[in-house]
Task: inverse folding
């Protein structure tokens, strides 16, 4: 063993290559190499107890069969030491993980997990290492996860052939999303000679070309320690990780040459222009649906200074509404919003930059191209002020310092930042350590024009450019269906009787394997005693600031402060309520006081990490017919800038200017396109929200304000004339004057304790400047909602379905709430996953019980079998009532629930969550009681709540489905009362 200058001891099988302090992250980064295989390892040593491990391989695809993606799925379906059908999904319910997943990128595949529990971490480490290096890769698992042929009628060889497979259906849904398609088509044309030309996730028409042997060969080629990078993060000792990795994996391999290098792309001598179609429903409006997207090949990923410089250039050009390229495109009136994926991307061996407009027409493509080039030329001629450059650097430094991680663990964000440079050029440090490159940048800025030359080099004078127009084609979807059908018919016409019987037998054997009860004793597990029985307490302090009580949450925010202001909606006039989401979207995008919207954008960038307004619907913990609705105005800043943040929040609350109709029209168009972009990736959430709107008043509000109803409202507003926007401006002003009153505000601060004096002063000044109300606030008016078993069909262009059924249950403090939470985990893991994903081929089958909203949801994601899934939902309820589960399954469900509810939030997220809970009246004692109820759930309770709140309430349970119109109409026999609404 050898020691280094951190506290870590290094086993002799490894060599410590370098140790780098990361003061901005309060961490130390260690780089190691395995002496025999050459495997690379990075460990980020920190006090964070949410420990993470990941192993990544360079996996450049040579075609679009999705081999890397299907392998990522199949590797997790059983391994040498854990030869069961589905160890990954089984461990989800035997663990207290805070994250478990796997990612397929364009040229790498990664298997990460995280946990705060020491025993759990090493259980998962065993599973992940065995899955990555010693998977079984059985043919049946390839058929289930990748693709297979089956007859539409299981035992009838004369019935139609169909393609099935989880990845096949996942990618059908993904490639129907214009945003995803834009990204794929951009890289296809920008990188014609390297692996990025291919779709690593798989094109649906190419996935059936992949063979089982090709999958096995791909694993043998790339999943080797000599091609592996191991990453760990947290406060568990590195030496323990290294001992396990050496014992379980590395000691079994020798060094090997792996040809996984991605070459530099061959540079164009001239730009190219291409048009690509995307499928749209024949009934949909074609106007304003196209995207025009320009992309350039830029620097090599190995040049860390160029990466930093281009990242800052992207912020300068596009980072806010005042940024010159952003402004020129939106002011042109040629489109509604910037295209998804605008900006600089260092995810590739050779990096790229992109910009464009969506919500446009193909006829504008050349005009948009010229507008971009002319604007870049003007910027290169005039340059950027030092103030704007300093503001962009400020944003970069703030982002590097912030401990984020509410969607993903912070450790995942750290790992994702370093993976590209680490894998391609053995540089995991520069993405996390900015000081050296920033010093070089400041020196170059002092020497003369810098960003201006960067624009000329990489954009204006760079011939390696793709001008892509993605346009809607109402015939494409049908054409793709016909091509798939013709392919299946051609295959079927060549099948011998023996081959047909073989397909029937294979389908039967797969189903048998899926239904077979397995001995899972080889898999590690936790016990209920491993769960902390005590609800964690979040420290807080109530501050008296003048007439206001302000909550303070001391958290390790790394020099940032978070301000949260809640304003009750209460008796806002009924005719104004549908406009609240628009108000929140506009508020931070318009001018205020003496500042134009451009000046406000510059103030926000230079002084904060962002400000935002949103609607929060807080459920009543005792009564499902009550709730609180509030507008939340929030922002974050480095502590040295909190006075600037406070001043900005005051201006927005007291003097927002909604009279600039051109600005209103622009932002409304952006809001509309953002809504439309969000639907394909979250179809199950939107469908369930629509159903919930028919069950509770809070559910109705969420649907009206953040559901498909609001999307339709925004689409209507986007069609208004300039004169009609006068009324919108008036409505916005009425809402602002009603909401932002000092006598109604609830305020909170999250930051480090040492900065409290500074923060109190800024918050006091902010609250003092809010206007007082003219009249006392009135009690909230809450309309009643009678549960209805409606059948809703939402028609889009998506070729798969999102199928949901929702039930009204009980509020948080009801004794049955905990059992319903456990029931959802039990159903998901033991019935829905098997029936909807494994057998049905959907990407996901889920159950969710929201204890706070009192709603229980059954959901599917990218599902090829709409009516079958609805049958599965009823079968699931019957399965529970029959008691077909034992105490081990209940324990696993409890573990799965605690894995979710004990998942750590970011420091800023902790304060925001705790404050919202306090506004609901939620106390530590209530949460502790709920925790105890979760730990004590019995089989009898699960059967009882399934019968009482689900099976017996089917007649009041709405069904909501998002799909395309043809699929929806084909389900009319099963859903005769379904109302189909076109989005």
Result:
């Amino acid at each position: 063993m050898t020691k280094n200058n951190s506290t870590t001891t290094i086993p002799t099988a490894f060599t410590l290559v370098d140790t780098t302090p990361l003061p901005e992250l309060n961490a130390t980064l260690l780089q190691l190499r395995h002496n025999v295989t050459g495997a690379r390892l990075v460990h980020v040593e920190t006090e964070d107890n949410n420990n993470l491990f990941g192993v990544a391989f360079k996996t450049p695809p040579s075609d679009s069969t999705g081999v890397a993606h299907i392998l990522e799925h199949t590797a997790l379906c059983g391994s040498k030491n854990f030869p069961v059908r589905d160890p990954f999904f089984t461990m989800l319910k035997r663990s207290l993980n805070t994250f478990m997943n796997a990612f397929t990128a364009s040229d790498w595949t990664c298997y990460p997990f995280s946990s705060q529990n020491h025993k759990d971490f090493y259980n998962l480490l065993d599973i992940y290492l065995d899955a990555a290096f010693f998977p079984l890769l059985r043919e049946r698992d390839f058929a289930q996860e990748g693709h297979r042929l089956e007859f539409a009628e299981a035992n009838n060889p004369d019935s139609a052939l169909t393609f099935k497979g989880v990845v096949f259906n996942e990618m059908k849904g993904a490639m129907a999303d214009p945003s995803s398609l834009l990204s794929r088509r951009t890289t296809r044309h920008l990188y014609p000679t390297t692996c990025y030309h291919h779709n690593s996730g798989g094109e649906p028409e190419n996935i059936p070309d992949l063979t089982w042997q090709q999958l096995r060969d791909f694993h043998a080629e790339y999943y080797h320690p000599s091609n592996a990078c191991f990453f760990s993060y947290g406060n568990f000792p590195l030496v323990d990780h290294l001992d396990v990795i050496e014992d379980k994996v590395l000691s079994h391999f020798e060094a090997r040459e792996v040809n996984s290098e991605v070459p530099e792309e061959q540079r164009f001598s001239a730009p190219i222009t291409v048009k690509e179609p995307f499928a749209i429903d024949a009934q949909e409006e074609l106007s304003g649906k196209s995207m025009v997207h320009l992309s350039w090949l830029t620097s090599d990923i190995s040049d860390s200074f160029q990466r930093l410089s281009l990242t800052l250039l992207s912020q300068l050009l596009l980072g806010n509404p005042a940024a010159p390229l952003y402004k020129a495109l939106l002011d042109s009136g040629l489109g509604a919003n910037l295209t998804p994926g605008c900006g600089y991307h260092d995810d590739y061996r050779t990096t790229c930059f992109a910009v464009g407009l969506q919500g446009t027409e193909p006829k504008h493509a050349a005009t948009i191209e010229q507008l971009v080039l002319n604007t870049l030329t003007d910027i290169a001629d005039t340059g950027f002020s030092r103030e704007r450059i300093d503001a962009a650097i400020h944003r970069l430094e703030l982002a590097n310092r912030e401990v984020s991680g509410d969607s993903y663990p912070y450790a995942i964000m750290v790992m994702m930042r370093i993976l590209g440079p680490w894998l391609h050029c053995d540089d995991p440090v520069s993405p996390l350590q900015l000081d050296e490159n920033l010093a070089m940048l400041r020196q170059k800025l002092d020497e003369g024009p810098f960003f201006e030359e960067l624009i000329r080099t990489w954009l204006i004078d760079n011939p390696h450019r793709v001008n892509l127009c993605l346009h809607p084609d109402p015939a494409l979807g049908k054409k793709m269906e016909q091509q798939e059908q013709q392919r299946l018919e051609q295959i079927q016409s060549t099948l011998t009787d023996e081959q047909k019987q073989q397909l029937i037998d294979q389908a039967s054997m797969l189903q048998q394997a899926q239904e077979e009860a397995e001995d899972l004793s080889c898999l590690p597990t936790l016990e209920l005693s491993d769960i902390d029985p005590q609800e964690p307490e979040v420290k807080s302090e109530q501050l008296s600031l003048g007439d206001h009580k302000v909550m303070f949450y001391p958290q390790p925010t790394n020099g940032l402060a978070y301000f949260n202001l809640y304003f009750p909606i209460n008796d806002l006039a009924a005719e104004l309520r549908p406009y609240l989401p628009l108000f929140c979207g506009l508020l931070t995008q318009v001018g205020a006081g003496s500042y134009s919207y451009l000046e406000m954008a510059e103030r926000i960038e230079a002084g904060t990490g962002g400000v935002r307004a949103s609607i929060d619907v807080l459920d009543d913990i005792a009564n499902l017919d009550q709730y609180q609705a509030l507008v939340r105005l929030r922002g974050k800043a480095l502590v040295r800038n909190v006075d600037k943040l406070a001043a900005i929040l005051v201006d927005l609350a007291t003097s927002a200017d909604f009279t600039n109709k051109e600005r209103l029209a622009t932002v409304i168009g952006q809001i509309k396109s953002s809504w439309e972009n969000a639907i394909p990736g979250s179809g199950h959430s939107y469908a369930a929200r629509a159903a919930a709107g028919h069950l509770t008043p809070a559910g109705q509000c969420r649907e009206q304000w953040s559901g498909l109803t609001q999307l339709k409202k925004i689409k209507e507003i986007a069609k208004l004339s300039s004169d009609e926007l006068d009324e919108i401006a008036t409505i916005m002003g009425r809402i602002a004057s009603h909401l932002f009153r000092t006598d109604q505000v609830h305020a909170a601060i999250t930051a480090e304790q040492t900065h409290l004096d500074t923060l109190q002063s800024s918050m006091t000044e902010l609250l003092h400047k809010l206007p007082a109300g003219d009249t006392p606030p009135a009690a909230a008016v809450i309309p009643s909602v009678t549960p209805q078993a409606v059948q809703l069909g939402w028609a889009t262009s998506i070729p798969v379905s999102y199928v949901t059924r929702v039930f009204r249950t009980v509020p948080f403090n009801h004794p049955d709430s905990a059992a319903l939470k456990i029931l959802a985990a039990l159903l998901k893991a033991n019935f829905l996953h098997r029936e909807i994903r494994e057998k049905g081929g959907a990407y996901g089958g889920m159950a969710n019980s929201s204890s706070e909203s009192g709603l229980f949801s059954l959901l599917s994601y990218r599902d090829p079998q709409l009516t079958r899934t609805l049958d599965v939902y009823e079968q699931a309820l019957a399965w529970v009532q029959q008691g077909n589960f034992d105490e081990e399954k209940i324990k696993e469900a409890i573990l799965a629930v605690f894995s979710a509810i004990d998942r750590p939030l970011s420091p800023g997220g902790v304060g925001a969550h705790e404050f919202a809970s306090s506004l609901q009246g939620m106390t530590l004692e209530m949460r502790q009681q709920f925790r105890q109820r979760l730990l004590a759930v019995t089989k009898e309770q699960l059967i009882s709540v399934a019968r009482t709140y689900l099976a017996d309430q089917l007649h009041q349970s709405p069904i909501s489905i998002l799909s395309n119109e043809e699929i929806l109409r084909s389900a009319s026999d099963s859903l005769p009362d379904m109302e189909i609404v076109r989005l």
